[in-house]
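A favour, since you know our structure tokens better than I do. Go ahead and set the record down below.
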Amino acid sequence: MAILTVPKVLREKLGDEGVEALITLLNEAAHHERNNLLGILEERFERRVADEGARLDKRIAEEATRLEVLLAETEKRLDHRITEEVARLEVLLAETEKRLDQRIAGEVTRLEVLLAETEKRLDQRIAGEVARLDKRITEEAAKVDNRITEEVAGLRQQIAAADNRITSEMARMGERMAGMRADLIRWMFIFWVGQLGTLIAILFAFFR
């Protein structure tokens, strides 16, 4: 901080040049003192920082050691607790598995009984349906047999009627064929007689 004013009494005794020289001297002394003070403060600060760094390093090392010990103890407790929990869970799992096996066995038995009852009911129902179908098939077969018998009787009657018609047609065709045969013989006789007369006429003319 620079000195700007000097008391009037001192200024009158020293004069203007003395006052300026005094101000310069005091300013230089103040600047030098400030530099010395800053150096001392810087050394103290550095020393304090070094002390604080060493103390912090020591504290950090102690805390790290304490934390490592605490972490090891915590890990040991956790391992022990995990082992206990795993053992407890294994026992619980074994009990649960046993209960589930018993429940599954009970459900399987119940389902087998239910399946046997259902199968029995289905067998009875199937037997009833089969008996009903057998009865119906027997009735339908009897109806079909009756119908076949009726159809066969009708066909036999139709065959007999057709046979009678064929017999009558054959008889009539035989009569027509006999008539046609007599006509054919008669025409053949006439043709032969004409041919014979022509041949006799030719021979008579030739030998004449």
